[in-house]
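Re-run with default settings, no changes from the original entry. Doing this only to confirm the output is reproducible before filing.
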Amino acid sequence: MLAEQVYDIFRIAHEISGGIVATAPTPEDIAIPETGELIDRYLVGKHGVTSEERIKMARFI
């Protein structure tokens, strides 16, 4: 039972987060200048929430 619940928990977290939990960029992606700029542009949150903070929260979840 426990082995099945791990996958259910991941599926639910993925659905709630809109997919960022499963598709969050890696530190290597952020280090590349071209992709780092795009990540900062498109993952920024509401005023005062940086893309770095959103990625950290996705990794935490």
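The helical segments are 2-17, 20-23, 27-31, 33-42, 51-60. Residues 2-60 form one domain.
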